[in-house]
């Protein structure tokens, strides 16, 4: 039987969450690891930008977020304890910048965005290749807290346990958000599979029932 | 509510190719996998979907000039270089210069034959300086022989792979039979086709490696698994199945390294004119554990 994973995030073992007062104009090299900031930028800028793009959904905001992340990394470079964990650390820095920007905005209600959580795809759709624009549209439907969890799962390859620790929310909340978000992606991407018509009879039926419910609600209002 | 609905959250929480099934919250899923095939089939399907999503998530073009803008911004924010003090580690070249300068300095020499404390100190100083110069030269030699570890991005790896293929798997290459394979370069369990043949080679960066030919019979083109004992840091994923971006020449590949002290794996599909299969086709669907 495989060994149990440690109860804490390996990423958290090797780095501190970016916090505390910033000191302007930090040095470009971490003395503890010998890691050079410019080398980090060269090695990780593309992956960081792609993550930022998926978080923000917009190229301009993604570039700004990436800039902010590297500037923060420059200030907090002394917190990086292991060079091997630089990539994971940068992802966490980027995520921290994104969350700060979220707090400055008005929070959106999940209910207002009509996440049809009871309309799960019964099965994951068989999709060989997913169109990136359709994926972007499906992600854009998700409230930020759901999108963040599913992107941490996919992009950072974090377990639900690690996500719970990083975001400081209960494991059950993470599992619920993850499942609802993935169910939404399955439904949206499965619907796109063939000319906008779902290939799954279950999904087609669900779609019909959902439309009927919306019509009923509209009529009652 | 059927069994799959009950397990849906656990299925969605289980990462492909991971040890997540050992986590306490997924105990129900782990037990169900042992009891029947329907849950296993759905888990396989979910993991295939996950891999497709991950590939699509990474399919984002990077804006032109982004790297330059980021580097310029970082340089503009960089603090001035710290003044030299006892805590500042000198570079190798400055250490050599310092040592050579020290070696060339000498206090006023005493006349020959006088064994005064000043003469002894002068000789000790010279010996010490020459030793420091020799040590610094040795450090330079080590650095030249064993260059500093560098980080290789996925795009850089993708650009190097045609060279790997050329070096390791050229038409005239001599291969060894499938068994026994070299123990220091284990085949990743996630790669299901058996080894047909293998050979050793060195990456352009000088790293020891082995390439396994795992082309299933009847397959057009070839499927190769590179196993590298990495000296450099490769910015790849920790689990297999995610397509390597930036591939050219019709090649398709997936690269992964499960831990920093584990080999680097690169699975390459060379379609030889045909479209060829995605590397995911040659990877186990069920989580290995």
Which descriptors would you attach to this protein?
heterodimer; A: 221 residues; mainly alpha; 9 helices; 59% helix; globular; disordered N terminus; B: 289 residues; alpha+beta; six-stranded antiparallel beta sheet; two-stranded parallel ribbon; 7 helices; 13% strand
Write down the overall mean pLDDT of chain A: 75
Biggest pleated-sheet summary of chain B: 6 strands, antiparallel
What fraction of residues of chain A sit in β-strands? Answer: under 5%
CA radius of gyration of chain A is 20 Å
Outline of chain A, from the CA principal axes?
Answer: globular
How much helix is in the residues of chain B? 25-40%
Radius of gyration of chain B: 28 Å
> Roughly what is the average pLDDT of chain B, rounded to an integer?
76
How does this model look, in words?
The complex is a heterodimer of chains A (221) and B (289). Chain A is 59% helix and 0% strand. Chain A is built from nine helices and no strands. In chain A, α6 packs across α8. The N and C termini of chain A lie far apart (56 Å). In chain A, 43% of the residues are buried. In chain B, 38% of the residues lie in helices and 13% in strands. Chain B contains seven helices and eight strands, in the order ααααααβαβββββββ. In chain B, the strands form two sheets. In chain B, strands 2-3-4-5-8-7 form a six-stranded antiparallel β-sheet, covered by helices on one side. In chain B, a hairpin with an 8-residue loop joins β4 and β5. The longest helix of chain B is centred in the middle third of the chain and has 29 residues. Chain B is extended, with a radius of gyration of 28 Å. Chains A and B meet through α2, α3, α6 and α8 of A and α1, α3, α4 and β1 of B.
């Amino acid at each position: 039987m495989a060994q149990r994973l440690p109860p804490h995030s390996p990423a958290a073992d090797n780095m501190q969450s970016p916090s505390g007062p910033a000191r302007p104009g930090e040095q470009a090299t971490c003395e503890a690891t010998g890691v050079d900031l410019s080398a980090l930028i060269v090695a990780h800028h593309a992956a960081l930008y792609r993550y930022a793009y998926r978080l923000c959904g917009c190229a301009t905001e993604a570039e700004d977020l990436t800039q902010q992340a590297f500037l923060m990394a420059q200030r907090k470079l002394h917190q990086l304890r292991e060079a091997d964990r630089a990539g994971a650390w940068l992802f966490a820095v980027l995520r921290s910048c994104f969350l700060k920007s979220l707090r400055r905005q008005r929070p959106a209600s999940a209910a207002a965005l009509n996440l049809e959580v009871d309309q799960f795809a019964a099965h994951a759709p068989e999709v060989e290749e997913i169109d990136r624009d359709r994926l972007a549209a499906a992600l854009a439907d998700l409230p930020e807290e759901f999108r963040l969890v599913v992107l941490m799962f996919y992009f950072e390859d974090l377990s639900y346990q690690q996500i719970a620790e990083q975001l400081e929310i209960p494991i059950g909340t993470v599992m619920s958000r993850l499942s609802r978000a993935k169910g939404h992606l399955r439904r949206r991407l499965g619907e796109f599979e063939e000319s906008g018509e779902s290939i799954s009879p279950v999904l087609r039926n669900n779609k019909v029932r959902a439309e009927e419910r919306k019509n009923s609600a509209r009529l009652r209002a | 509510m059927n069994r799959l609905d009950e397990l849906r959250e656990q299925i969605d929480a289980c990462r492909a190719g991971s040890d997540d099934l050992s986590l306490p919250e997924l105990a129900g899923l782990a037990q169900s996998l042992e009891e029947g095939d329907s849950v296993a089939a759905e888990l396989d399907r979910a993991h295939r979907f996950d891999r497709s999503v991950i590939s699509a998530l990474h399919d984002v073009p990077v804006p032109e000039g982004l790297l330059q803008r980021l580097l310029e911004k970082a340089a503009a924010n960089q603090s001035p270089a710290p003044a030299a003090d006892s805590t500042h580690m000198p570079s190798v070249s400055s250490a050599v210069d310092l040592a050579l300068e020290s070696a060339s300095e000498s206090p006023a020499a005493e006349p020959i034959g006088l064994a005064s404390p000043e003469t002894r100190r002068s000789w000790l100083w010279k010996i010490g300086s020459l030793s420091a110069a020799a040590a610094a030269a040795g450090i330079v030699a080590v650095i030249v022989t064993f260059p500093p570890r560098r980080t290789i991005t996925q795009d850089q790896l993708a650009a190097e792979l045609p060279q790997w293929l050329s070096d390791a798997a050229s038409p005239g290459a001599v291969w060894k039979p499938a068994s026994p394979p070299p123990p220091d370069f284990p085949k990743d369990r996630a790669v299901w086709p058996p080894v047909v043949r293998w050979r050793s080679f060195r990456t352009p960066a000088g790293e020891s490696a082995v390439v396994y030919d795992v082309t299933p019979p009847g397959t057009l083109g070839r499927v190769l698994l590179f196993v590298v004992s990495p000296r450099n840091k490769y910015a790849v994923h920790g689990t297999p199945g995610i397509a390597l971006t930036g591939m050219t020449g019709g090649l398709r590949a997936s690269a992964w390294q499960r831990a920093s002290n584990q080999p680097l794996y690169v699975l390459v599909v060379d379609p030889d004119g045909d479209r060829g299969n995605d590397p995911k086709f040659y990877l186990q669907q069920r989580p290995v554990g």
